[in-house]
Amino acid sequence: MFEGTVSAALPKREFYGELTMQARALLADETNRVANAANLSALLYQTMPELNWAGFYFLTGGELVVGPFQGKPACVRIAIGRGVCGRAAETRETQVVPDVHAFPGHIACDAASRSEIVIPLVSGAGDLIGVLDLDSPVPARFDDEDRAGLEAVAAVFVGSLGERGTGS
Predict the structure, then answer these.
(1) What's the alpha-carbon Rg for the chain, to the nearest Å?
(2) What family does this chain come from, according to its entry (predicted)?
(3) Distance CA 138, CA 140 (A)
């Protein structure tokens, strides 16, 4: 059984270095998208402080559809371009939102969420796979160090799926 432990007391750069190594070990030798998303969302939720949601939305039929996650029940479908997740999918750029209430068109799946970070997941072939979404009840929870660290973790996930990024 995998036992992920990263001290939240570490400086962020070290924290994310450890988290990335643990993600790599957790996803090693597995290419199934659902299995890896389930395990990675659990690792993030259990390891990162001040989260109330951590999970995935996958591109399906031209929209984002909820995948494995940790937290309260979530919105099932999100249009590309709508809300923070849809914006990250549309632009293929990480969205760091210090105050979700100030984000035009924010979709409130959990009223307790105050800040959010969404990382687009793009295959080596350049195809959008989906997004990795983390929410926090703490305003301005995420910063540029979180962006860089979570982009590295997301890259481990995408790499685990193989060249096309679809997994088996």
Answers:
(1) 15
(2) Belongs to the free Met sulfoxide reductase family.
(3) 6
Question: Contact, 125 vs 114, CB < 8 A?
Answer: no
pLDDT(168) > 60: no
Please tell me the pTM assigned to this model: 0.93
Domains of the chain: 12-160 (3.30.450.40)
- Rounded to whole angstroms, the Cα distance separating 31 from 159 reads 9
Task: Map tokens 């924010």 to a residue.
Answer: 106
Task: Spell 127-158 as b/e; 16+ CB within 10 A means b.
Answer: ebbbbbbbbbeeeebbeeebbebbbbbbbbbb
Q: Tens of pLDDT along 90-113?
A: 999 999 999 988 887 777 776 788
